[in-house]
Amino acid sequence: MTYNELYRQTKSKFEQAGADAPAFDALCLLEEVFSVDRHALIIRGNDEADKDGEALFFKLAKRRADGEPLQYILGKWQFMNREFFVGEGVLIPREDTACAVNAAIQALRGRSGLEIADLCAGSGAIAVTLGKELDCRVAAVELYDGAFAYLERNIEYNGAYNVKAHKADVLSGGSLFDDNSLDLVISNPPYIKSGEIPALQREVRREPKSALDGGEDGLLFYRAITDEYTKKLKYGGMLCYEIGEGQYEQVEEIMRQHGYENIDYRLDYQNIKRCIFGYNKRLSDKPF
Predict the structure, then answer these.
(1) Percent of the chain whose predicted confidence (pLDDT) is above 90
(2) pLDDT over 80 at 224, yes or no
(3) Which has the least CB within 10 A, 201, 214, 215, 254?
(4) How confident is the model at residue 282 (pLDDT cuts 50, 70, 90)?
(5) What are the Cα distances from residue 6, in Å, to 48, 55, 224?
(6) Domain coverage including residue 196
(7) Angle ∠(156,118,69) on CA atoms, nearest 5
(8) pLDDT tens, 89-104?
(9) Among residues 111, 95, 141, which one has the least CA distance to residue 266?
């Protein structure tokens, strides 16, 4: 078959399977197997694909049509211009999370010797990015074996030697840090309501439930982390979360109850309030 035929057939198959981006997925697999990107498809689309590559291509396409996330099939995914290994057992880095990371970078860039905790670290996308962009040390805390293996691998792969992985439960792992020791606590915690998980897209349901389930109201981790880690922040330290759609007011109230001020948010590419951050007010009326 030609590359054009493979592309059209696979795109149609993905459409029938209900994929969100069938054309994108088909092109990604073409590039993965044959190094044929969109531009090359225009020029070489009528060339014949080799049989071994064709067999592998159809094998990968079947996995995608059966609902396996494209990112797991490819084995790597980009986040903020860096690559991260991903696969079964770890949450896939998403563009949404860049809101929280950029908010932290904007607030802290220019300072030296920062001490940062990334809680529910998963693949390490947040921890590694902060470690590469700021003058800091990052403690990346992750409980589950599958995700922890990817966390360690991605720290090494990206050369983020100022990031250290810690295997611990963030709900009871506050003992990893001294009181008044951290400049930033950041987290993309599980925030989907337990009752909503069965209705998620089938691809999302292939990701670990432990990285999705935020309890009955989706706020379990926000309450627990804010309660446990506020005292770990230095005076004037920053707390920053990724949040789900419609959660801003509730998480804001949790933070206010724990003494945070100058609470603000950032919008994602869909104009949804996707991150919230605030500052421990115990030092003065101004952060830092």
Answers:
(1) 93
(2) yes
(3) 201
(4) low
(5) 10, 11, 50
(6) 88-280
(7) 70
(8) 999 999 999 999 999 9
(9) 95
Cut 0.90: pTM above it: yes
Same domain, 152 and 33: no
Both tokens of 21, joined, read 């981006």
26 and 100, same domain (yes or no):
no
- Tell me how far apart the alpha carbons of residues 246 and 250 are, in angstroms, rounded to a whole number: 8
- CA distance to 181, 224, 267, per residue, from 140 (Å): 15, 17, 25
Residue where a domain terminates, one of 36, 66, 96? 66
Same domain, 132 and 171: yes
* 288 secondary structure, DSSP code: -
As a whole number, mean pLDDT of residues 248-263 equals: 96
Interior/surface letters 86-120, b for 16+ CB within 10 angstroms, e for the rest: bbebbbbbeebbbbbbebbeebbeeeeebbbbbbb
Residue matched to tokens 């706020």: 219
Work out the end-to-end distance of the chain between its first and last CA atoms, rounded to an integer number of angstroms: 62
Cα 41 to Cα 24: distance, rounded to the nearest angstrom = 13
